[in-house]
Amino acid sequence: MVDGIDPKVFASRLQEGTAHERRLEWSVAADLYGQLLADLSPVAAEDARGRRLRALALLRRATALLQLARWDEARGALDDALEDAKASGDPGVLAEALLAAGVYATDRGDMARAEAFLMDALERFHRDDGRPSLQGRGWAFLNLASLYGKTGRLDLAFVTFTKAQDVLGAAEDWAGVAAAWEAQAQLRRAIGDEDRWREDLAEAVVFYDREGMTEKAERLLEFVGLYSKRKLVAGSLSFGQQKLLEFAMALMNEPKVLLLDEPTAGINPTLINGLIDRLKRANQEFGITLFVIEHNMRVIMNLAQYVYCLSHGELLASGSPAQIRDDQRVIDAYLGAH
Q1: Residue 208: Cβ-neighbour burial (10 angstroms; 0-12, 13-18, 19+)
Q2: What is the pLDDT of residues 275-303, one digit of tens each?
Q3: Which pLDDT value is given to residue 212?
């Protein structure tokens, strides 16, 4: 027993949380890990085993909080995880904590600190040849490659993506290999390499299928209302259904922020309410921040929590939907002066 909790029970509850993560139930997972941490406390400073368990729970909670964009809470969980990981004396757990800190710093745009954390994690993962360390090494390479792409070091990014694919393949982490190919495809698309990004995305699909990601894809198709169409070729779907399919594809990568440019344009009015409902659910259930450009005022007033109104390329007004609706400048610009 460790501070009132059996290690087997602890492992079982971590697995339960992971199952919620796979179903993209991030809020449920965060609450579960929070309760697990409460059950672990207090842990004595000299209790290395207890601090190792607490570090693992904190890392899982931090991951869920990141997905929910609860940045301050995630930062606090990561700080505590790093402290416990160091005190535990477990080099593998410390490497995982450094990797998580690197991911957080990248998400927050602190690229210098992110690179330092990731390089430190990579060096520690290199100290052991077991499968967990091999996987950790591969994910460190993957996150470094993405960071290099974001900071314009393209040659280094593509070399590092290849390393990530090779190492994760050696660890038989097929979801990781797929993620590396997908991230590489995203970078190629961002730089305008129209032919090769599709080839990379096709590679990602192969490895996602090998990992058994079909179940996840089918859950997302059900989420957007296309489960009954799952056996059809995408080109046979209506324009509105193709928009829903694109939404499901975007959710597959578990984004923290989703940029949407006129998502309802050209959609049959009968499908618009369904799309708005699913966008709201993506925000509420998956913790995804939506940044939407939209000219359909009914859509934006029903969807947005905060609105920026532009006129002739300049910011005209900002505020809640109600404030925008009653703003005389907006009325004059879009409805005509009275």
Answers
A1: buried
A2: 888 899 888 888 889 999 988 888 888 88
A3: 65
Q: Write down the architecture of domain 7-219 according to CATH.
A: Alpha Horseshoe (1.25)
In terms of Cα–Cα distance, which of 255, 220, 174, 211 is closest to 23? 220
Secondary structure letter of residue 314 according to DSSP: E
Let me know: does 135 contact 173? Beta carbons within 8 Å.
yes
pLDDT tens digit string along 237-249?
Answer: 888 888 888 888 8
CA within 13 Å, CB half, 273: 2
Nearest Cα residue to 88 out of 118, 128, 43, 125: 43
The topology (CATH level 3) of 226-335 is Rossmann fold (3.40.50)
Nearest alpha-carbon partner for 287 in 78, 70, 32 = 70
pLDDT in tens, 196-208: 888 998 888 888 7
